[in-house]
Amino acid sequence: MKLTIIGTGYVGLVSGACLAEVGNDVFCLDLDADKVAALQAGRIPLYEPGLTELVQRNLAAGRLRFSTDVAAAVAFGTLQIIAVGTPASASGEADVSQVWQAARAIGQHMTDYKVVIGKSTVPVGTADQVKALIAAELAQRAVVVPYAVVSNPEFLKEGAAVEDFMRPDRIILGSEDERATLLLRSLYQPFQRNRERLLLMDVRSAELTKYAANAMLATRISFMNELANLAEVLGADIEQVRHGMGSDPRIGYDFLYAGLGYGGSCFPKDVRALRHTAAQHEVPLRLLGAVEQVNRQQRLRLVAKLATLWGGDWQGKRLALWGLAFKPNTDDMREAPSLAIIEAVLARGASVLAYDPVAMPATRALLGEQIGYADSPMAALHEADALLIATEWKEFRSPDFEQMRALLRAPLIMDGRNLYEPKRMRELGFVYHGIGR
Ligand code: UDX
């Protein structure tokens, strides 16, 4: 099938590469000429396991191309997949201006049947507005061209995005147009594997499903973080409680990890946007307000603990920080808890020496030399008064504890991801603080 992807951010790029991989002919449009030139040369502007190989292979095979040519992009695909960014505006509302721009461009250039597919996370009702915008452009041109607008939200997790696209749990399709539904069914046929994974529903339900799923997961995380704080004062261990809870199949084990709160490009933005939509319709989502509040506070949980340990005087103190990215296997710093931690530590007058296997260039671009960057986890510990762990990268799981103790000025570990056993850490001579245990 011939298809066009509008927007080469995370979702657009992964979707384009994966759809090319199964044999489709894919045209990726982006307005950023430098980015397009880099992509056309096989250089990927983000860190995502497996993606570079996939893009390079499909470029070489001629099934994937990148361009800034809007008219050519609209002419190319029967399927027009909109995967542009929908960042949060100051009020929390999703900014859908790039979606409007894409819709107008399609309406201005289309000459034959198109299925316009909304993949960006957008407020409920956006597909209807896309439909109206295209209709207005066609009316302006005084032409009649058939088209359908469907919603097909994406559920990619950063760090596992290629795998998630290739082996989806479910494919949500909001479509009220039979011809479009048939085309989308055949587009996703290669990803069905052993059972039917496509869930067909109306457009608005599909749009809401994406927000609902992310809000539910964010709620689980904030619930566990609040419970962890209670477990701590009760002398219980949230990790044991988590096992006990997860073994109930109605609850399940996933997304029950207490930590430093959720970050990333989706949960914070989507929870805010859903609350905003709800408030607009005078159906306030009270639970989600609490989810956000708990999340904000959780980021600074270990800094608050450090304050009780270090007292008022942070001048001359140095904090070693392991992990900067909001989660492992990505260099994405959007809403990373580490940023809130760094800001609070610097504001109190201490310094930070950080290590992250991939996110240091991205952090430098944001913070410059406000913090120091170490070449290895051990180098970050040099003359540090404490170590704080903010991301559960694999390489932090089994370090040389003897060496760590020798390098740290004080044997204090603040573990925001509960990587180690508290009892063992005490035996090794550390003062060890995790989350909820
Ligand atoms: C998420 C959704 O999982 C995905 O379906 C959607 O399409 C986009 O948003 P992503 O943001 O890539 O994906 O990361 P995810 O792995 O879901 O983690 C989000 C945040 O929650 C991270 O900061 C992570 O550290 C935190 N988290 C996750 C917890 O604190 N505890 C958990 O148990 C799970």
TrEMBL record:
Keyword line: NAD, Oxidoreductase
Catalytic activities: UDP-alpha-D-glucose + 2 NAD(+) + H2O = UDP-alpha-D-glucuronate + 2 NADH + 3 H(+)
Enzyme class: oxidoreductase
EC annotation from Swiss-Prot or TrEMBL: 1.1.1.22
GO biological process: one example: UDP-glucuronate biosynthetic process
Binding-site positions, substrate: F155, L156, K157, E158, K210, F255, L256, Y257, A258, G259, G263, K327
Positions with a binding annotation for NAD(+): D30, K35, T86, T121, E158, K269, R334
The organism's place on the tree of life at top rank: Bacteria
Family membership noted in the UniProt record: Belongs to the UDP-glucose/GDP-mannose dehydrogenase family.
Main function: Catalyzes the conversion of UDP-glucose into UDP-glucuronate, one of the precursors of teichuronic acid.
This protein's name: UDP-glucose 6-dehydrogenase
